[in-house]
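REQUEST ID: PR-0412
SUBMITTED BY: lab tech R.K.
PRIORITY: routine
TASK: structure prediction, single protein chain
INPUT:
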Amino acid sequence: AGADRWQLYRHVIIPASLPAVLASARISIGIAIAALYLAETTGINTGLGAFLLSVRRQFRYEDIFAGIMVMGLLGLILYGLLDLLERLLCRWKYV
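STATUS: complete
OUTPUT:
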């Protein structure tokens, strides 16, 4: 006989779709950070977006650059974590 429904999902369907799901998550990191910035500049008085809006009004270019660097670093860290997660969960892809 063959595999039952649960075994089919666990050993075939989920492992086969996982690389595409994680790649989609990696691609969406940039959109998520942009949405975070937009949300923080419009609705909240705290956070990185509000900080950038505040220092922009004061023409503090060094602080603007620092805030942008923090956003880039956040994206880089999240991208690296998703890459690590993919390497752990999809070992067969990197053999």
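NOTES: Residues 5-43 form the longest helix (39 residues).
REVIEWED BY: pending
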